[in-house]
Fold each of these.
Amino acid sequence: MATHTLSVPISLENEKNPWVAAAARFDEAAMRLKLDDGMRKVLRSAAKELTVHIPVLLDDGRIEVFTGYRVQHSLARGPAKGGIRFAPDVTLDEVRALASWMTWKCAVVNIPFGGGKGGVICDPNVLSDAELEKLTRRYTAEIIDFIGPERDVPAPDVNTNEKVMAWIMDTYSMHARHTVTAVVTGKPMALGGSRGRPEATGRGCMIVILKALELLGLKPQDSRVVIQGFGNVGGMAAKLMSAIGFKIVCMIEYDGAVYNPNGLDIAALQKHRKQTGSITGFADGEDMDKDEAMFLECEVLIPAATENVIHSGNAERIRCKILCEGANGPTTPLADEVLADKKIFVIPDILANAGGVTVSYFEWVQDRQGFFWNEQLVNQRLEEIMTESFDAVVEYARAHHVNNRIAAYMLALDRVAQAIKLRGIYA
Ligand code: GLU
């Protein structure tokens, strides 16, 4: 059980509520930083929250109404920044937590943004392309006064992609009566997207994993990697990491897992999934129980799917040396304590997956300048930022005798608190 004093005590019942999880880390970091009560109140709550109800005319002629949110947690260091997810289980609490994580993430990597997040409660798998487009455009129209290059800049997240970003950009631009590329990031290249953005989150994970290996005296060639999630983050990390010698021994998806102790051929697995619709039944690997695969012994485990997959009920069974959180919030606060006892080197989400928003920042800069960089420059600048941020977090943890997650939060909270202090409280 958690020993620190929390404004929201964590129990087995609420440990999977993302807002409780975010609050627990926030409280501990704020306490250690000795932030005063007023500042805690400012940083803890979201600055603005918008709920919209979105009517959509479905293909069969019926009208359905979907509920969506856009939350701006902080605007202290710049415009809000963060993705939009389309999923049946989206809740306001989850969007709030994710928005606050974006604030801390942008502050950890020191890019000039606050944090925001959006979500629409829907199942994109049962919507046609035309319905999805209508939903996206109407959601955009409903939040149009809330977003903008100087206000709040959305991006892809769970179940949204560059096509959805193109619709948002177009809808916003139609209302503005001119093309506004910098209103969203993660766009197609032809519409002001950045080179290197699709790979950025996976590449960022690889960069910080290489740094962690170095600290632990390990080599990529001797490192077995287990990845949960074969989407944009997990799939890219798998591809990039196997190309430099890591052995990706297991890939886990929602419908099964595939294992090969000698390392999976990621390109072939990608092809297999494209042909069959699933990673299971892959000729060059064995199918495995997806609920057991996360407990394989390995050097690196990358949960790159959803929240709360490592919790008080299973943390004891995790057998990796390095845990790199590709997803947002994959570990609950109760699990943190177990992982610490097991001496697992955790690269927390707000650092590990910050490569995505870092290249989103580059995209926003390029759009505003109308001057585009080559891929080498994007990757080089990403590497500089991820490396510096990793070093800063690890050094902070060492100097303050805290774990990497709390160090990342402390670093971030301190930066945002400083910005608020310097700006003062407007009355
Ligand atoms: N959705 C991604 C994240 O959680 C990217 C956000 C962005 O690029 O603004 O970090």
Note: The CA atoms of residues 207 and 383 lie 7 Å apart.
Amino acid sequence: MIIAVDGPTASGKGTIAKALAAHYGLPHLDTGLLYRAVGRQVQLAGGDPDHADDALAATDFAETLLADPELRSEATGGLASRVSVHPAVRAALLERQRAFAGQPGGAVLDGRDIGSVIVPEAQVKLFVTASVEARAERRFREMQSAGRAVTLEEIAADITRRDARDAGRDAAPLIAVADAHVLDTSTMSPQEAISAAIAVVEDCRPQA
Ligand code: DC
């Protein structure tokens, strides 16, 4: 069974995808991490993330970069969003994601274009979303506990900017496809969101 989990930043899609993978015993790929690695590699190489050639060259990043803790930072998330607008970058990462999805037994992938471009044939498509306020609040709490000095307003502005770029780009924009199940987690706890996602999968999964 292939489960596609798409949604904007801080919507809870990563938490849900990880939990679904554990629940169903499936491998999980956080595809955002690939774009983050490209963004980070451009930076390390002194390139320009808005320049298609620089960004494409960075898709050749070393596998060890995927373990770099800096990949999880907000700054790298912003770079990832910028490199991801280039069609050549998306094309370079496509096969890797499709091969992961095509493993025997299936997989869970989360990102922005999993149900629309990477595996439109996925048996289950979830579009996880939440209000900007709820997402900013979550990020703010995470960053506060990590001792980072940021304001809620800055985070909300950053999320709004990132949403606009991810949903407004020409190449594989963030959209909920017609056959996706939309899960709004604004007022849900992580456990409630996970239970709701499992309920959707149970409804869609091929009967044995
Ligand atoms: O999910 P994330 O915040 O780690 O993703 C970082 C950026 O990568 C996001 O702003 C857009 C891009 N991305 C994408 O374009 N397509 C994906 N499948 C996953 C991420």
Note: The two ends are 11 Å apart (CA to CA).
